[in-house]
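Sync notes, pocket subgroup
Present: LS, DG
LS reminded everyone that the earlier model was apo-only. Rerun requested with succinic acid included. Inputs:
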Amino acid sequence: MKYLIGASILVITFIISIFFIPVDWLNGKEIPYDDEQEGLSKQIVIRFSHVVAENTPKGLAAQKFAQLVEEKTDGMVKVEVIPNGSLYKDEDELDALIHNEVQMIAPSLSKLTGLAPEWGLFDLPFLFQNDQDIQKVLSSELGNKLLTLNENKGIKGLALWSNGFKQMSSNVKPLRQPDDFIGQRFRIMPSPIIGEQFKAFGAKPVEVPFDQLYTSLQEDKFDGQENTISNIYSRRIYGMQKYMTVSNHGFLGYAVLMNKEFWDSLPEKVQQSLEAAMAETTLWMISESQRVNNQQLQLIEQESSIQIHHLTEQEKIEWYKTLMPVYHKFLQNVNDKAMKEFVKNRMKQLETQ
Ligand code: SIN
C-alpha cells in the first residue's frame, strides 16, 4: 500500500511539472537573462557623494540623475545621493572614488588640476563670455577628450556639468578696480591657475576646503572669496561679507566621475541606461543652474545688507588686462595642441575688445 501511494505521488508530481517547466528548457535552449527574474536582491547600488547642499545646481542635478536612473532601469539600479560632504569631505572624495568606497562624485574641475594641469583651462579668468559659450566648449571634442584624461588612474568621466559663473566678495572694500584686491587674502580651491589669478591682482591666495569655508571666514583666515551665487547663498557666505561684485569673471564646472572598474563591471544595458540618464540630466542642468543662481541672487539682495556692485564693461577690461599673465602661465604648462589653440584665440579676442 505504502509503495502504491509513493508511486502515485511521483507520477502526479511528474505530470504537474510538465505544465510548469519552461518550453525553452524542454527544448534544450537556455532561458535568456531577465533583470526582473533576478529580483531586488540583485539591485545595483551606486553611491554618489558630493560636497554641496541639496538646493544647489549640483545637488539638484544629482537627485535628478538618481530619479532618471530609477525610471530607466525599472528600479534595478539605485543611485544613493550623499550631499554636503557628509560621507567624504572635499579633500577625501577623489581618493574614496579611486578606492571604490563611493562609485560616483562630481568635483569642481579646479580640484582635478592635481591630476592633470589641463583641467586648469576652466579656471582661466574671462574664458567664457556667456552660458552658450560654456555649453559649446563643454560639449565639444575638447570637453570629451578631457573626460577620458584620467582613465589610467581608474577614473571614468561621464559628463561635464556647469554651475555657471563665479562672483567676487570681500570684507575689506568694494572690488571694482584691480588695485582694490591688493594685499587682501582670498580663499581659493586647490588650483594653481586660480592662485595665479589672485597673485596677478596683488592678493594672497589661501587654499581652504569647501566644508571649512564658513568656519574659516569666522576665524578670519581670509578676507574675500570667489564662488557661484548658489554656493555663496547655500553656505551663507553673503551674511559674512560686506561687498560682492557680480563679475562673472570665472567659471565653476564639475566633472561627473565614476570608478572605472565599477563602470566596466556593469552590464552593457545598464551602462546605456546610465548614459541616457546622464545626457538628460546634463541638458536639464543648463537652464536649472541659471534659474537657481538668478533666484538666489534675488534672495541675497532681499535677505542681506551686502553691498552689490555689477562690474561695468570698462572695469572688466581693466580686470582682464591685469589677469593676462595667468593665460601665459597656463600655456607654459600644457601640451595639448587644440587646447593651446583655443586659449590663444580667446586671448586674441580679449586683447581686441
Ligand atoms: C562645489 O561647488 O563643489 C564646491 C566649490 C568650492 O569648493 O568652492
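DG: Confidence is low (pLDDT under 50) at residues 10-40.
LS: Residues 242 and 305 are 8 Å apart (CA to CA).
Action: DG to write up.
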